[in-house]
Design goal:
- The chain is α/β, with parallel strands linked by helices.
- It folds into 2 domains: about 325 residues, NADP-dependent oxidoreductase domain (TIM Barrel, Alpha-Beta Barrel), CATH 3.20.20; about 80 residues, no CATH class.
- The protein is built from 19 helices and 10 strands.
- The strands form 2 sheets. The chain has an 8-stranded parallel beta barrel, surrounded by 5 helices. A two-stranded antiparallel ribbon has the order 1-2.
- The N terminus is likely disordered.
């Protein structure tokens, strides 16, 4: 779940609830859920940004759709002010595109929406690229009931596919799709361990207009151990590539729910009281923060990241995310969160798989732990099992892998051995 919640203490709570009430007006309307014309709905309240070199004004909050969508929920998101939709041919086995198409067709809101879809199943190169990409896009457009996508992605580009970005056939395919007005812009998505290299290359080749990357509060502003990622984001930003964040909740599950949960994680008050860093965490909890709002707001805090795509799965998530888009974190809140992030770095896989996977000799540790997060945190058990079981046998051969070496290589001190074995028990 990619939900967000606001500060719940004192003036912050009142200010947040006031904004949430305004943002929720469209959702509270019965008409909004029953198909009334858009003109009768509450005015859009989600702030907009310019998406890199596309030059397009888009809402800073985007709707992720990789779950079982209902038409009423999609419609409510649109009427609440969300004007950016991210989908893919692979989401819910094409059903997500169909639901979105039905809603856009019924409401007449297609031209109001920045619509992104993705090529997930046909990463063709060379002379075959034009035909493959156009055929797959045509199928998506038919489901979406539109004749164009605002942006079309190569979805989930991986380490072994990085040379696609230099391939003349792939570039020609996307340029052709632009020329025949089936897409306006070109993009890619990636959460591969060599994300920095992929992001830098996207900035160099020139034909990529926007990129969606895994980015969350543990990455924002990091310097030590994250120099490569920050340099790559800087390079893409200077190239004016539109930058879109996904997986913004990754790592938020490590947030304790209360002081007792904090102490259960081994952060206990000593006899002399909490030291400054630990005290900051307690202050954060006592301030009334829920973990989701901290996670999503810190991404907006980074001026290089323009859009957050959030998988909102209920009306509460939607209302609170819209409200959260209105209020930046204060300086004090940013400081508290930074201190908390540093203290809990060892509780979350940061995705730097190039460090541990070479040591593991076969097991793609970062990928396995991402699937474990899908299983345990996002509740996508069936999808997580399918992804894990689709890995080649060598990737699941724990007996042959050197997991202890991988654990030793982890710069954040994760219990890699226990986590990978737990993933195998639950998803094998």
């Amino acid at each position: 779940m990619e939900g967000s919640h606001g500060p719940c203490g004192g003036g912050n709570r009142r200010r947040f609830l006031k904004t949430a009430a305004a943002a929720g007006a469209a959702l509270a309307s019965t008409d909004a859920l029953r198909g009334a014309p858009p003109a009768t709905q509450a005015k859009a309240v989600v702030p907009t940004v310019t998406l890199g070199k596309t030059g397009q004004k888009v809402t800073k909050l985007g709707m992720g759709t990789s779950w079982a969508l209902s038409p009423s929920f999609v419609q409510a998101a649109l009427f609440s002010g969300v004007r950016y939709i991210d989908t893919s041919e692979s989401y819910e086995n094409t059903k997500a595109e169909k639901v979105i198409g039905e809603v856009l067709d019924r409401t007449g809101m297609r031209k109001d929406i920045y619509l992104v879809t993705k090529n997930s199943k046909g990463h063709a190169t060379g002379d075959a690229a034009v035909k493959v990409y156009e055929e797959r896009l045509d199928e998506s457009l038919a489901r979406l009931k539109t004749d164009y996508a605002d942006c079309y992605y190569i979805h989930g580009i991986s380490t072994r596919e990085i040379d696609m970005l230099r391939d003349p056939g792939v570039k020609a395919a996307f340029e052709h799709l632009k020329k025949v007005n089936k897409i306006r812009f070109c993009g890619l998505s990636c959460h591969d361990p060599i994300l920095p290299e992929i992001l830098e290359l996207a900035a160099e080749v020139g034909w990529i207009d926007q990129v969606m990357i895994k980015y969350n509060y543990r990455d924002v502003g990091k310097k030590e151990r994250y120099d490569d990622l920050n340099r790559a984001i800087d390079k893409a930003s200077k190239a004016n590539i539109g930058l879109v964040a996904m997986k913004t909740q990754s790592g938020a599950e490590a947030f304790p729910a209360d002081k007792a949960a904090l102490e259960a994680k081994g952060i206990k008050a000593p006899a002399g009281g909490f030291q400054p860093r630990e005290k900051a965490i307690v202050d954060l909890l006592e301030k009334g923060y829920k973990r989701e709002v901290a996670a999503i707001k810190t991404v907006w805090m980074d001026p290089r990241m323009q859009v957050v795509v959030s998988e909102m799965t209920n009306f509460s998530d939607l209302r609170e995310n819209v409200a959260a888009s209105q209020e930046p974190l204060t300086t004090t809140e940013m400081r508290l969160l930074e201190q908390y992030r540093e203290t809990t770095a060892h509780l979350y896989c940061h995705g730097c798989g190039h460090l541990c996977e070479s040591a593991a000799k076969g097991v793609p540790v970062a990928t396995v732990l991402r699937y474990l997060r899908y299983y345990e945190v996002y509740g996508k058990r069936q999808e997580a099992r399918a992804l894990y079981q689709a890995l080649p046998p060598v990737a699941r051969d724990l007996a042959a892998a050197d997991l202890l070496a991988a654990e030793s290589a982890c710069p954040h001190g994760l219990p890699v051995v226990d986590l990978v074995r737990r993933a195998d028990r639950q998803m094998a």
